[in-house]
Amino acid sequence: MSELHISDSVLSEAKLLICVGTGGVGKTTTSAALALRAAALGRRTLVLTIDPAKRLANAMGLESLGNEARPVELGSLAARGGSLAAMMLDAQRTFDELIIRTAGVHAERILKNRIYRIMVDQFAGTQEYMSLERLYDLYERGGYDLIVLDTPPSKNTLDFFDAPRKTAGLFDEQVMRWFVPNSGSESGFFQKLFNPGAAVLKLLSTIGGDKFVAELGEFFEALRVVRAEFKVRGDRVHEILRDGRTHYVVVASPDPRRVDEACYVWDRLAGTRMQIWMMVLNRSHDQFGAAGAAALARPEVAASLGPERLAHVSRAYGALASLGLRDRAGIDLLMSKAGTTPVLTVPAKGRDIHTLEELLSMTDHLFGPLTST
Amino acid sequence: MLKGLLQRKLLFVTGKGGVGKTTLVAALGLLAARQGKRVLLCELDTDPSLRRIFSVPVIGFETARLADNLYACNLVAADCMRAFVGRVVPSRRIADAIVGNRIVGIFFESAPSVMEAVILDQIAERVTQEKPGYDLVIIDLPASGHAIKLLRVARSMAEMVSIGELAKRLREVDALFTDPARAGLVLVTLPEEMPVNETLELAANLKSAVKTAIVGVVCNGLRHLEVEAADTEAASAALGDASASGAPELLEALELARYWTEQEREQLARLRTELSIPLFDTPFVFSKASDRDLVDQVAARLLEQA
Ligand SMILES: Nc1ncnc2c1ncn2[C@@H]1O[C@H](COP(=O)(O)OP(=O)(O)OP(=O)(O)O)[C@@H](O)[C@H]1O
Ligand SMILES: [Mg+2]
Hints:
The structure holds two protein chains of two kinds.
Chain A: H1 9-13, E1 16-20, H2 27-40, E2 44-49, H3 54-59, E3 70-72, E4 83-88, H4 91-103, H5 107-112, H6 114-122, H7 126-141, E5 146-150, H8 158-168, H9 173-179, H10 189-194, H11 196-208, H12 210-241, E6 246-252, H13 259-269, E7 275-284, H14 290-297, H15 299-338, E8 343-347, H16 356-367
Parallel strand pairs in A: 1-5, 1-6, 2-4, 2-5, 6-7, 7-8
Antiparallel strand pairs in A: 3-4
Chain B: H1 2-6, E1 10-14, H2 21-34, E2 39-43, H3 49-54, E3 64-67, E4 70-74, H4 77-88, H5 92-100, H6 102-110, H7 114-128, E5 136-140, H8 144-160, H9 165-177, E6 183-189, H10 193-209, E7 214-222, H11 229-239, H12 247-274, E8 279-283, H13 291-304
Parallel strand pairs in B: 1-5, 1-6, 2-4, 2-5, 6-7, 7-8
Antiparallel strand pairs in B: 3-4
Helix pairs in contact in B: 2-13, 4-5, 4-7, 7-9, 8-9, 8-10, 11-12
The structure holds adenosine-5'-triphosphate (ATP) and magnesium ion (MG).
């Protein structure tokens, strides 16, 4: 069995918590619940989410979430002096704002470039990169004790950690030199001869026409202006992700068919300087086992239900118990993967989260009820 | 209904992560192959999902055989790029040198939409190829957000690139994808509020942004436990002491089953009334011998809705 509860002391000490995991496992809800618990423990907390369910915003008493932090009304949960703000990432706006801040007089030209617009809209890594970009500002000068970061539903979580490197590729000096001839040192005869840029440019104009190449050139030149700033921030974010007060929460499903995904995320983090605090297995059915079936088999229970209803209810319980069996197998596999790192389960619930109290109660499964002091 | 889906040449399958896209791709492929069509299933860098279902050793850029009439490939951007450059640049050696260059790699990886464009090119290539021709190509698209981006690339790049090989190709690709007689999109979802919200949103976004016809919606994973409030109340009364051994588990399980029953009804009704698109339902498979067995059970239910 997984551990029953662990201490929530990390919530009082960490500066940044990052929830990682594949899509559809409940990362966003888990992020919000952890942030709420930290706020109830007295910390000034921000949860930065991606694509939250409207109901989650509503549960936090908000009509919706936006690109700026909105305060959550905590009522009695603020007794220890904590606070909670929630914010949703708007990758497109964040990117534009970054350009406006860093590109000075060139900003307008960059923002208008069609290739830039397409990139902001469609480049696969934009959302990942921008969530880190947003994080940088909030971490450095947001005035929060703790930030809880929900990560985008990438095809694989690797995208998230690779985003800075991938986007940095845009600023590769040699690539820029193809398009912007005087962006580097004077190129010599040999460089000209073996410059892959010449071949690529020729290829690109065969493929896309000269106008396309000209626009690409303008795009790369424009980005050159913001390059230094991007680099500094990228390096700093790299450090923040590995800081001693940054902790990772791997959110996964106990379903053994999805164990591979969780192991993949795990392997990506393990052996790096990124510290995994715990693994949360969400929507587990592991509580459904033989005891429930035995209760149904008691003669007085069977008699009271009558044969027809007994058969119907038994079938339903049997189905859930088979999920229980399945999830316990997944939990065992993940526990052996996690070694000494705690693995905790949150049970699947037959209702939705509608209030702050219900959101907070999700954390009771991890840490036990909040003790009042 | 099913006939309408399978008569097209190109089907895209998409939906939220983990809802059963690959399962549906495999099930639809099997059904079409059994009808005697030559079918190609295309994964986009999601190996080993299909490999696991069909227990075959490799599925790569080159086509692998899965069953009678059923084939699969896994398209990865780098291979698609090599194939595309190979067609544009006559010399194989120069093409390899360009594609294999590290700096060129960085450029293509970071330049917006280039990778997506070559994947679309390769999809169109497989649909139109004649050597071994296919009657039906089914694409296992990535989770919805990425899928819209991918499908939009043809259109937005075509706006930017007006002449040259790529422009010509993008116009062909766009014409194929937006021809309702040849191409269609299947949305997979679950009988839960969030996935259904996302599906409704996706359907609206697709209409305005992509123009590929949505030809079917599959609500996958219906538990069919049919537990009503009367059942949970009767069980609670029969148990008497709610804290007796096993009672909390039993009541919690029935509460969950009742919630699922309610959700299944409600979400199917939403899909039916808010979308005028053929709706299929497929069961949640509690026990199965293998992934292939799951696919067979899902396919069997689809066939009932033919
Ligand atoms: N009807 C069903 N009953 C039971 N299990 C199912 C059903 N459909 C799918 N599954 C299981 O759910 C998991 C996810 O299914 P699948 O791989 O088809 O989803 P996907 O949408 O392709 O996921 P991804 O977004 O990761 O590509 C698999 O382990 C599969 O066996
Ligand atoms: Mg899949």
